[in-house]
Amino acid sequence: MAEITGLTGLRPVGEMLSKITCPPYDVIKPASPLEKLLRKNKFSLYHLTLGKEPLAALQFLKEKGYLLVDQTPCFYVYEQVYNSQVRRGVLAAVAVEDYAGGQIIRHEKTFDDKVKGRLALRQKTGYTFEPVFLFTQADLRTVLDKIVSLYSPEAEFVSDFMGASELHGIKNRIFRVEEKSREGCLLKDVIASQALYIADGHHRYHASLLNQQTHCLAYLCAAADAPILAYNRVINGLVKFAEIKDKLPLQVVREFKTPPKHHFSLYTRGNAYLLPAQKVPEDVVGRLDCRILEKELYPHLGLTADLISDPAYFDYYAENELAEMKDCVDSGKYDLAVALAPVSITELIAVADAGIQDPQIVMPEKSTFFAPKILSGIFIYKHIRKIMGWNYVER
């Protein structure tokens, strides 16, 4: 089944781990407090993933000795402690396979044009900076728990993003496990026993395919350790909500909050409503609330695919950002906020498995939000590319 190997490349040393690591590039919104904070930190990986001069930023960290060159293939068990919960996963190099092989299973469609920036960054630097988030139905948790009980942490630190990220205040511990060790072999065996599902980072994996890499940088955890939050919407339709609300079977409610399955929580300027789904199809994609929303609400608001891809008309917020969504509406930036129930891991697996036989079966974009996110920069992977049958390491 899936094959993993140890990582080689660069890793931050000592106290630099807390200064270099940052949230993934795709949750750093332009001009946000988080983006401003990271831009001011000259050590942050932000300057490599979103900065204008990534090569110069990488060279700066290397010349200052902040990044250690590590050529010993190792796995990195990564523990996050947050809200009295503990999640353990492992950073590794996962063999890149076409989706048709059924070893790496996706649930979202991917597009070449959406990975141009990520692909150019890899080809310019020769490194992969951020992992694909994968989960397995194998008993990975038992092996990780055993490693944590046997090993001393290579590093531990608390992420400090001044409250501007959901990763702020999370306690992180890193355990370095050599691939050839007994525990390294156990990790390889348990991962090989099941296929891997992409939780987050579909376009990062797609960039690995387009870059013809032998392996990609990945974070792997057990399915039970991959909690899914709802991915909510703020909307500026061509038709205002006030003009169409009388056409909808709305229930006035006291609070804008995450709704039950097959219902939608709506908020517009001080008023909250509950909108029940009118029809729930039987097929694995059609019954998803995000697809039902597309059919039952978007047409009333005059939303088209072009508008949905334009942040002036449409944007996404995680389930834990309901207050920010209300602020967007109250300020007049958006007309309507819509909260959904989260997709379950069972629903995700059902869609992903069906997609192996029919590649057209995928979830709509931004259907899931996995939290907490994985810090970028714990390890910077020196990937290898397949060039005319040869494995090629970029210098």
Structure in words:
The longest helix is centred in the last third of the chain and has 13 residues, at 345-357. β15 (263-268) and β16 form a beta hairpin. The chain is 28% helix and 29% strand. The radius of gyration is 22 Å and the shape is globular. The chain has 395 residues and is an alpha+beta fold. Strands 1, 2, 3, 4, 5, 6, 7, 8, 9, 10, 11 and 20 form a 12-stranded mixed sheet that branches. α6 (140-150) packs antiparallel against α7 (182-192). It has 2 domains: 4-227 and 371-382, Alpha-Beta Complex (Conserved hypothetical protein from pyrococcus furiosus pfu- 392566-001, ParB domain), CATH 3.90.1530.10; 230-343, Conserved hypothetical protein from pyrococcus furiosus pfu- 392566-001, domain 2 (2-Layer Sandwich). The chain starts with a strand and ends with a strand.
Short note summarizing the structure:
This protein is of the alpha+beta class and 395 residues long. It is built from 14 helices and 22 strands. Strands 1, 2, 3, 4, 5, 6, 7, 8, 9, 10, 11 and 20 form a twelve-stranded mixed β-sheet that branches. A six-stranded antiparallel β-sheet has the order 14-16-15-18-13-17, covered by helices on one side. Strands 12-19 form a two-stranded antiparallel sheet.
Radius of gyration: 22 Å
Largest sheet: 12 strands, mixed
- The level 1 CATH classification of the largest domain is Alpha Beta
Look up the CATH topology of the largest domain: Conserved hypothetical protein from pyrococcus furiosus pfu- 392566-001, ParB domain
Strand portion: 25-35%
Find the structural class using helix and strand composition.
alpha+beta
